Amino acid sequence: MPFISVEIGKLTLEQKEALIKAYTEATVEIAKVPPEAVLMFINEHELENIGLGGISLAEKFGKKK
Sorted alphabetically, which keywords does the UniProt record give (predicted)? Predict the structure, then answer.
């Protein structure tokens, strides 16, 4: 059973559904498993909890609270 874990910033419900569909379809095609065998977790993080190049993504994208 393939297990997929994605660490990402906040997403809308539509974005999550699209991500799940795309990863599942790719896994089915590549690993030759049924879609029911693909388990996926989306771990969302606030932009202020993600750093890149020494600053938070909230600061980088001007979205500080």
Answer: Isomerase
Rounded-to-integer distance, Cα 49 and Cα 30, Å: 33
d(CA 3, CA 38): 6
Q: Which of 50, 54, 33, 5 is nearest to 63 (CA)?
A: 50
Fold entry, domain 3-60: Macrophage Migration Inhibitory Factor (3.30.429)
Is residue 6 within 8 Å of 43, Cβ to Cβ?
A: yes
- Give the pLDDT confidence of 22-64 residue by residue, as tens digits: 999 999 999 999 999 999 999 999 999 999 999 999 999 887 6
Query: For residues 63 and 5, what is the distance between their CA atoms, to the nearest angstrom?
Result: 26
Q: The pTM is what?
A: 0.80
Residue 7 tokens read as 């660490």
